[in-house]
Model the fold of this input.
Amino acid sequence: MSYVGKANFGDAEKYITDFVTIANVRIGVLIELAAVNNKFYLDFIQNIESEEYFNSFIQELKNININYEIKEKTEVNPAKIKRVI
Done:
């Protein structure tokens, strides 16, 4: 899990209704957490086809009564970045 921190968009922040973090996952699952406009946004990013981990995560949210909304599920193919350092 990675916490990208509290966003600071000044006066424009009150108009933000969605926030997405896209990262390239080499192996397994990554959850990016951000705080924007007094809300938390989680991006569940994985490079495996099975939705088993995602579904288990959603079930745990339900089990502990955390309200959530799934904004979208999408397939993302970020550009391959070669590390040069």
